[in-house]
Each structure stands twice: as C-alpha cells, then as structure tokens.
Amino acid sequence: MYHSINHSTLSLVDLGWSEFFDDQIGSDETGLVPVRVATVHRSRMTAQSVAGPVKLRLPPKTNTAYFAVGDWVLTEPRTHLLVRLLERHTLLQRQTEGARTSQLIAANVDTLFIVTSCNEDFNHARLERYLVLANEAGTTPVVVLTKADQTADVSPFLQKAAELQRDLDVVAVNAKSDEAMTALAPWCGAGQTVALVGSSGVGKSTLLNTLAAKSSETAQPTGGIRKGDDKGRHTTTSRSLHPIIGGGWVIDTPGMRTLHVGDVGIGLDILFSEIMELAPQCRFRDCSHTQEPGCAVQAAVAAGTLDPERLARWRKLAEENRGNSVTESGPRGNKTPEFRGKRR
Ligand SMILES: Nc1nc2c(ncn2[C@@H]2O[C@H](COP(=O)(O)OP(=O)(O)OP(=O)(O)O)[C@@H](O)[C@H]2O)c(=O)[nH]1
Ligand SMILES: [Zn+2]
C-alpha cells in the first residue's frame, strides 16, 4: 500500500491556517509567505509550505528553542528566510526540573491524543498530568487506549479513563490496524492538528505510522516491548509534523519521563471540576478540604461520591503547582512568563 500527499493541492487552510493567523499579518507583510514549522533542531528548522517541505534559512543568532513544531512563521518567498513568528493559538509546554523557562512541546495543536495502553501502563496520576497540560494549553484532550486487541475486556479501561475528567473523549484502538484511523477520524479532518503524548512503548509511533500511512521506508521505528513489565524502549527521538491520510496533521513527541506542573491553575480547575464545584459549599472560604467542619469535599468523600485517592492526587498536583508558579513569591518567583499559549 502506498499513499502520497499531493502538495500541489494543499491550501494554507489545509495546513491549519485560520483567521486567527490572518489577522496578524501587517500591511507591510503581505509579500511574505506563511509556512508551518515541521521540525526544530538545534541549528536548523524545516517547514511545510503549500508547495511542499522547505528548509528554513535562519537569521544569525536565531535561538531555535523559542520555536515549536506546529508554529506558523512568515518567510521571504525566494530565500525561505525566517522573518517572524506568529502568535500561537495554543501552546503545549512543560516545566523541566530546575529550568527557569518551560520546554516547548508543540504549537497550534487542536487535539492532544493522550496515549496509554490497555495494560499496566494505565496510571491515573500520569494521565492527569497530561490532561492538565492539554487543558492549560487550550487543546482538547482525547485519551487513546491502545492494545485493545491484547486485552479480553476493554470496558474497565474505558471506564477508568472516562472518570479522569468530565466530558472526556476516550477511544480504544488497535494502533496497528486501519480501524484506528476510522476511530480517530473525528479529530483528524483537513486543517486539524493533533499531537501524540504518552509513555514509551504505548504505541505512539505505531499510531503515527497508521495515521500517516507510512510506507516501511518512511515509517517511524517502533520498539518491541519487553515482556513482563510492559515498558517499551525509547525509540522516538525527535518531534515533527506529519500529514495524516485524508487530511490533518500529527505531531509526535519523544517520551517525556517527567512531567512537572507549574502555572497550570486553569488546567487543574478543568481537570478537577467536580472538586472545584464543591468548594463554594464549604463553610470556610479558605477551606483546605482536609478536616475543617462543614467541608463539602470531605462530605462527598464520606458519601462515597468522591474517590479519596482522586482528592489526594488533586492535593498533590495543586501543591506542586503552587510551588512552581510565577505568581508565587519565593526563589522561583522571578521566572519570566514568556511564550505562553493563548487560551481560547
Ligand atoms: N497488538 C498491538 N501492539 C501494539 C499496539 N500499539 C503498539 N503496539 C506494539 O507495541 C510496541 C511499542 O510501540 P511503539 O509504537 O514503538 O511505542 P511508542 O509509544 O512509540 O514508544 P517510544 O517510541 O519509545 O516513545 C511495538 O512493538 C508495537 O508494535 C496495539 O494497539 N496493538
Ligand atoms: Zn472544604
């Protein structure tokens, strides 16, 4: 089976362009060409243009760490010289331990496919961290449960995933099969951008190869999983923008071992909305929901409508977020909130 992308039929809208970006073009910039960043390396970057892939010419002293895969940039038509980065619609980023700025994961992503498999990779606390990341970026999260073909019953996994966040979409697939493509089609239409995150070995590369219908020469290498511990080996090393068959774009991300949270207040409130909605009913406005009298959150735990482990995970993330946020005073309070995504 061989598929090819006919670049001559691509429009800017097919590439993910919208009014949001159009509105940013100055009257003196109409001669410049918008292209979408496809790969970011230490000293070089490539992009997708309506005419196909291009190698960007970078001005001297360009710091490529300020650019993310999925970014829209304006370029000189003949030289492909990078002129200006356009403001992002969404920005997925993560805090790195001890780092003063965050690491950019991907920009202008509509949907984040949070990939986990129907085995012991499934981990509430880890998935909740990915959900916070997506919520904070303004990106719609979808939990994709892979290896549905390797479990007798997917329903407990579907159930556990659906409980992670209100109105969360959850899909179970065999990442190796073309049916995965059909199941994920609602988020992969023309001009839509999805990104894949998840632990090593859950099937991100396999899913990417299915979505992009990679031939064996262009396929991402996939790692054979080690028997016994359900942990894969790291096989993905860099991120890039790939066309999805039938429309849309997919960005793969290298396995992220640690995912710290900071400056994600909105992301946390969306994730734990059932807890947030109880808080105003507590007797004390500054209730810590631990042992205060008249605490609506503790009452929900006692009534069996709120899982105490869920409450404990909220507490842990909220505390970590407080310690890592710029709005807090203290040693980390002088961080500059640069390059933050715009919320919808
Ligand atoms: N049967 C089955 N095997 C799968 C499925 N998804 C992934 N695999 C297998 O699981 C192994 C790991 O998949 P990868 O796609 O390499 O995982 P990854 O998430 O890209 O891993 P990293 O590159 O390390 O981040 C491979 O041997 C895949 O063939 C699935 O849905 N069903
Ligand atoms: Zn309370």
Automatic annotation (TrEMBL):
<dbReference type="Pfam" id="PF03193">
    <property type="entry name" value="RsgA_GTPase"/>
</dbReference>
<keyword id="KW-0862">Zinc</keyword>
<feature type="region of interest" description="Disordered">
    <location>
        <begin position="317"/>
        <end position="344"/>
    </location>
</feature>
<dbReference type="InterPro" id="IPR004881">
    <property type="entry name" value="Ribosome_biogen_GTPase_RsgA"/>
</dbReference>
<feature type="binding site">
    <location>
        <begin position="198"/>
        <end position="206"/>
    </location>
    <ligand>
        <name>GTP</name>
    </ligand>
</feature>
<dbReference type="InterPro" id="IPR027417">
    <property type="entry name" value="P-loop_NTPase"/>
</dbReference>
<feature type="binding site">
    <location>
        <position position="289"/>
    </location>
    <ligand>
        <name>Zn(2+)</name>
    </ligand>
</feature>
<feature type="region of interest" description="Disordered">
    <location>
        <begin position="218"/>
        <end position="238"/>
    </location>
</feature>
<feature type="domain" description="EngC GTPase">
    <location>
        <begin position="107"/>
        <end position="257"/>
    </location>
</feature>
<protein>
    <recommendedName>
        <fullName>Small ribosomal subunit biogenesis GTPase RsgA</fullName>
        <ecNumber>3.6.1.-</ecNumber>
    </recommendedName>
</protein>
<comment type="similarity">
    <text>Belongs to the TRAFAC class YlqF/YawG GTPase family. RsgA subfamily.</text>
</comment>
<dbReference type="InterPro" id="IPR010914">
    <property type="entry name" value="RsgA_GTPase_dom"/>
</dbReference>
<feature type="binding site">
    <location>
        <begin position="146"/>
        <end position="149"/>
    </location>
    <ligand>
        <name>GTP</name>
    </ligand>
</feature>
<keyword id="KW-0694">RNA-binding</keyword>
<feature type="compositionally biased region" description="Basic and acidic residues">
    <location>
        <begin position="335"/>
        <end position="344"/>
    </location>
</feature>
<comment type="subunit">
    <text>Monomer. Associates with 30S ribosomal subunit, binds 16S rRNA.</text>
</comment>
<keyword id="KW-0690">Ribosome biogenesis</keyword>
<feature type="binding site">
    <location>
        <position position="287"/>
    </location>
    <ligand>
        <name>Zn(2+)</name>
    </ligand>
</feature>
<keyword id="KW-0378">Hydrolase</keyword>
<keyword id="KW-0342">GTP-binding</keyword>
<keyword id="KW-0699">rRNA-binding</keyword>
<keyword id="KW-0963">Cytoplasm</keyword>
<feature type="domain" description="CP-type G">
    <location>
        <begin position="101"/>
        <end position="259"/>
    </location>
</feature>
<dbReference type="InterPro" id="IPR030378">
    <property type="entry name" value="G_CP_dom"/>
</dbReference>
<feature type="binding site">
    <location>
        <position position="295"/>
    </location>
    <ligand>
        <name>Zn(2+)</name>
    </ligand>
</feature>
<comment type="function">
    <text>One of several proteins that assist in the late maturation steps of the functional core of the 30S ribosomal subunit. Helps release RbfA from mature subunits. May play a role in the assembly of ribosomal proteins into the subunit. Circularly permuted GTPase that catalyzes slow GTP hydrolysis, GTPase activity is stimulated by the 30S ribosomal subunit.</text>
</comment>
<keyword id="KW-0547">Nucleotide-binding</keyword>
<feature type="binding site">
    <location>
        <position position="282"/>
    </location>
    <ligand>
        <name>Zn(2+)</name>
    </ligand>
</feature>
<keyword id="KW-0479">Metal-binding</keyword>
